[in-house]
Amino acid sequence: MPSMRTLVKLIGLLLVGLALVFVGLRVATYVEDLGRAAAMPGTWGAVALSALLYGLLSLLLVLGWRVILGGINAGFAVSYWDSFEVYGRSQIAKYVPGNIFHFFGRQLLGRDKGWRQTAIALASVVETLLLGSSAAALVLLFGALNRPALFDVVPPLVLALGVVVAVAAPLILLRHGARLPGLRRLTGLRDAESLGRGPAVWRAFMIYTVFFLATAAVYWVLIDLVVGEASVDLLPGVATAFVSGWLLGNMTPSAPGGIGVREAVMLPQLSALLGEPQAVVIVIMFRLVTIGGDVLFFLAATALAAQRATGGAR
């Protein structure tokens, strides 16, 4: 009988496979629309600009992770630039099949900085919790405001309660996780409880919320530049599509960079807003944007590490 870890991995692979098949069929249907969009003079300039903006916004992810690390009673000071080196150089590993190797990269690079391994691991766990919490809260909030078909059957009061639960869940888990039977033996619980009672969790949560909102705005601008004039009325729906796609894509095991899953989640939502041909163009373009932004982010972190190493050698 397969272990739980193997079962989760198999389910993740199945989801990724189904998502890729779904997106692939849609792309094949509208390949001519993709060709026309690619041939437009301003398309690649819009993609490049969006990739640069996305790479810059990734600095907020570094800031959030550093805030979490600083809030842990870890016995070391964490500078922003050290955090940028570790986070930026390891983050590209999320594209390796498995969607977990960027966490291992942080452990290895952080060890070279002399950081405590349990503190790095706890920071990554809390980051995942807060990113999921922020994304879920925004999806429910925008769902209540935009009322897409997915949320039509859900009363607004239930959505409002969902927002409250999404925001409060990480704090409750951090403060009271030691009381749960499955978590009692985990190391770092004292650090987690201390972190949950300090201001770092709220600060990181707000940083991640700004990241999602700003990235959704970049996504909306890309739609405006590639597809045509996008009204402000589309912004809540676009934000819902992006954040929900990001959340499910990044949380799916075995999905490198959320590939396939994110597009499959976003495509139906954007099709309702823009029409399916234009939605297919946008989800493919935005995948290029995020890959390009992540590569720029990695190169900047690598260049910084090289420059600091050279300076230290002198």
Order of helices and strands: HHHHHHHHHHHH
Strand content: under 5%
Unreliable stretches, pLDDT < 50, 5 or more residues?
A: none
Sheet/helix structural class:
mainly alpha
Name the helicity range: over 70%
Multimer state = single chain
- Work out the count of structural domains: 1
Total strand segments: 0
Radius of gyration: 20 Å
Number of helices: 12
Q: Mean pLDDT, nearest integer?
A: 82
| End-to-end distance | 58 Å
| Major beta sheet summary | none
Task: Write a concise synopsis of the structure shown.
The protein is an all-alpha fold and 314 residues long. The protein contains 12 helices and no strands.
Give me the secondary-structure topology:
Layout: H1 4-29, H2 31-39, H3 43-71, H4 80-91, H5 101-112, H6 117-146, H7 156-176, H8 189-196, H9 200-226, H10 235-251, H11 261-274, H12 276-313
Helix pairs in contact: 1-11, 3-4, 3-6, 3-9, 3-12, 4-5, 4-12, 5-6, 6-7, 6-9, 6-10, 7-8, 9-10, 10-11, 11-12
Describe this structure in words.
Helices cover 77% and strands 0% of the residues. The radius of gyration is 20 Å and the shape is globular. Helix 4 packs across helix 12. The model has no long low-confidence stretch (mean pLDDT 82). With 314 residues, it is mostly helical. The chain has twelve helices and no strands. The protein has one domain.
Question: What attributes does this structure have?
Answer:
77% helix; globular
